[in-house]
Amino acid sequence: MAVTDLVLVTARDRPDPGLDGPFVLPQQGLVREAADRWFRTRGTVPDLACEPDGHEALLALVTLGCGTGMVPRIVLEHSAVQERIAALPADPAPEPFPIGLCIRRADLRRPLVAALWSLTARW
Fold first, then answer.
1. Tens of pLDDT along 7-54?
2. What is the pTM of this model?
3. Boundaries of every domain in the chain
4. Given this structure, which CATH class describes domain 2-120?
C-alpha cells in the first residue's frame, strides 16, 4: 500500500543521543527484523534496554530516556509524544519499510470494513 522510512529516535532532552545504545527495540515483528538487519549491516550487536510489544510503548520508553528506538516514520509523525522525540541520522539508513493492509475475510461483511476495503482497489 505504501512505504515509510524507519527512523532512529531518542528523547529530545537526552544528553548523549549517540547510536551506541542502549536501544529500545520491538520484541518481535517486522520492525524488529529490520532493526536486526540494520545492526548486522553495521557489524554491531545492540545493547538492549528493553523490548516493548508496541510502537507507542516503545516511544514512551524512549521519551523517558531509556534508550534509542527504531520506528516507522509514520508512527512517529502520528504519535502523541512526537514533540518530545528527535529523529537521529543513521549511516547507513535503515531500509524503507512497507505498509500493508490485511483483514479477515469474515470482516468484509461489516459495512465500514467493506467501505475501507473497496478504497484499496484504487491503490
1. 999 999 887 766 788 999 999 999 999 999 999 999 999 999 999 999
2. 0.81
3. 2-120
4. alpha beta
